[in-house]
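Support request, priority: normal
Reporter: lab tech (M.K.)
Component: structure prediction queue

Hi team, I submitted a job for tRNA-2-methylthio-N(6)-dimethylallyladenosine synthase from Sphingomonas echinoides yesterday, and the status page still shows it as pending. I've pasted the exact input below so you can check whether something in the sequence is tripping the parser. The sequence length should be 435 residues. Please let me know if I need to resubmit or if it's stuck on your end.
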Amino acid sequence: MKPAPKTYAVKSFGCQMNVYDGDRMAELMAAQGLTQADPTEADLVVLNTCHIRERATEKVYSDIGRLRKEALRDIGRAPMIAVAGCVAQAEGAEIVRRAKVDVVVGPQAYHNLPELVARAARGESALDTDMPVDMKFGHLPARRRVPPSAFLTVQEGCDKFCTYCVVPYTRGAEVSRGWDQIVDEAKALVDAGARELTLLGQNVNAWSDDTRGLHDLIAALAEIPALARIRYTTSHPNDMTQGLIDAHGDIEKLMPFLHLPVQSGSDRVLQAMNRSHSRDSYLRILDRVRARRPDIALSGDFIVGFPGETDADFEETLSLVDAVGYAQAYSFKYSPRPGTPAATMAEQIPEAVMDERLQRLQAALNRDQAAFNAATVGRTCQLLLERPGKLPGQLIGKSPWLQSVHLVSDAAIGDLVEVTLAEAGANSMLGTLAG
Ligand code: 5AD
Ligand code: SF4
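Reply from support: The job had stalled in the queue. We restarted it manually and it finished. Here are the results:
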């Protein structure tokens, strides 16, 4: 038994959906009257975990051990520990057995966190990895103060079953939140200070309510007067409808940025990955988007070293990168996930080969990012100021193309200001006030 916690900390790992979930868990705890504290001092620590790559599970176990040790050293007692997120979903009761944590709660069940914490305080078992059909969102408290750029989950789960990926198992089947619920949350976020909303989903562009698609939702949100910008992530090529492509040309508040993972440039590998699109169909989608929005900044995800990937396959990935000219992209070494089909495929690729391919790919992507940034020098655009910079008077904001831009100005966080992009760095830009 542990006393009912009075303070809490939430540590989120992994994707933006986890950041969103972590924020909502924090709001839940605050609504229960708990106050936020440092993870080494809090009575309750929620570890909101990610399972997507590389020894994620082992990392959670060592995090739990370290957390306990630091708390014992600093405050003389171990906190109540709740493991949430995708490792909780995948490991379930095993975490309780192995690490003696107090609460285990999956990504579709965290609205029950207060009750689980209460149960744990009574010394009862507190594990919930259900995936109820009625989504958790209806059970979460209202939004508090939010940043200028806020996340809004509109869709969860995935039915695509790429052969390397755990998401269909940890997050469950594709579910779309209801239209009214989303619009209400968007309005509440804007009322609380958001100027930009990023609509989130594992397959966000699969959002649908039978009659309407993501582009209809974006069009409706664009009607909220104080909302200046809309983004969405992450998308699957096969759900890139003409309506959504057209929205990039028609809806001014929809920012010129598209994150569209491709994973590989080789059709053979794409097929083994069960991606259900080809190199060519992917490139054609980008052509159609560019036709509607010529200045669109493109982003993607890549995996190197998928089982059976040959040098020739990898060269095709490099040539796809050359063909696209990404503004930025993420690239990963393939990591076998227990329970996924690829984990038991023959011809797993040696680590050294993966390392070498990743280095070459990242060099190409960095080169293209630098080229993209350099090509935007001289453009005048709006900047949404999101946080203070390191230097006095410096602010950091995002350009429409999702570049981080540093600006010296007496404007306030949350302001949209007109800037000229004056200088390009490796990962950010310098801006000057326009006019
Ligand atoms: N190994 C490496 N990268 C992976 N991703 C998903 N599963 C794996 C895995 N098993 C990457 C994909 C996906 C991104 C979110 O993580 O590129 O788009
Ligand atoms: Fe994973 Fe593929 Fe679904 Fe993306 S589309 S979440 S990579 S299974």
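The radius of gyration is 22 Å. Residues 351-376 form the longest helix (26 residues). Let us know if anything else looks off. Ticket resolved.
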